[in-house]
Amino acid sequence: MSSTGTWFFKRRALALGIMAAGSSLGGVILPIMVDRIIDQAGFPWAMRSAAFLLLALLIYANLTVRSRLPPSPKPWSLMEFILPLQELPFFLVVSASFLFFFGIFLPFNYIILSAEYHGMSQRLAAYLVPILNAGKTPFSSPLFPIRTPFSPYLNQTKKVHPTNQKHQVSIFGRTIPGYIADKSGRFNTMIATSILSALLVLCLWLPARGNIPYILFAAFYGFSSGAF
Questions:
Q1: Which of 123, 209, 200, 136 is nearest to 174 (CA)?
Q2: What is d(CA 224, CA 200) in angstroms, rounded to the nearest whole number?
Q3: Closest CA to 105 of 213, 228, 199
Q4: Quick count: other Cβ atoms within 10 Å of Cβ 13?
Q5: How many C-beta atoms lie closer than 10 Å to residue 24's C-beta?
Q6: Distance (Å, rounded) from C-alpha 149 to C-alpha 100?
Q7: What's the whole-model pTM score?
Q8: Distances from the Cα of 179 to the Cαs of 109, 123, 204, 206, in angstroms?
Q9: CA–CA separation, 203 vs 117, rounded Å?
Q10: Which pLDDT band holds residue 25 (cuts at 50, 70, 90)?
């Protein structure tokens, strides 16, 4: 992440958003991949497969990523981290970020348990975290006629195993806010998306009862929280 920031200035937020979208893509692929491999080959080979995939990607990243600015080592000092907190604006930003990070991952950790408690099937609930990471739900339209793995469940119909379904992955939650931030201000965009994330938790997740509210929350919250 720090290397990306050295190559961009005017479009830095967009560049960081595109880079961070890779984590969303991984968050979509890895849970589904691990779940399928556990069913077919067992837990040990699921972990080995994920490790081999990450090893290959890390090797590629280490060979290709470089910083525009050469490293400049300097003595480490604890006061460099403490003195800036004396400035009230900086202290407020750090405190607000701490509180936001304190709560941002609660839906990622508990949405599956919450959805299953309110009647969602275990198979469909397993897709909520990939939807959160995708930043936008799979969709179907005349231009993109995609059948989604959760569409058979929207009306509480019979259970259909999603093996033969297709996935439409969107990573707009990382890239679009970055594009907007370069034009309207990074703090302005972060404030707006943080407020939207809080409203989604309070007004959509907590009162959710049924499949559709949980799927909508996963999609919209993935979009809003991905901008932070």
A1: 136
A2: 9
A3: 228
A4: 23
A5: 24
A6: 31
A7: 0.64
A8: 29, 35, 27, 31
A9: 18
A10: confident
DSSP alpha helix (H) spans, the chain: 2-5, 12-41, 43-64, 79-82, 88-104, 106-117, 122-125, 128-134, 172-184, 186-200, 211-225
Residue with tokens 């936008």: 136
- For range 210-228, the mean pLDDT: 83
Answer with the residue of higher pLDDT: 34 or 156.
34
Give the C-alpha separation, 220 to 137, whole Å.
Answer: 8
Please name the amino acid found at residue 116: E
Q: Which residue has the higher pLDDT, 57 or 74?
A: 57
Residues in the chain: 228
What tokens were used for 150?
Answer: 């959760």
- Could you tell me if 128 and 111 are in contact, meaning their C-beta atoms sit under 8 angstroms apart? yes
Question: What DSSP string runs through 28-54?
Answer: HHHHHHHHHHHHHH-HHHHHHHHHHHH
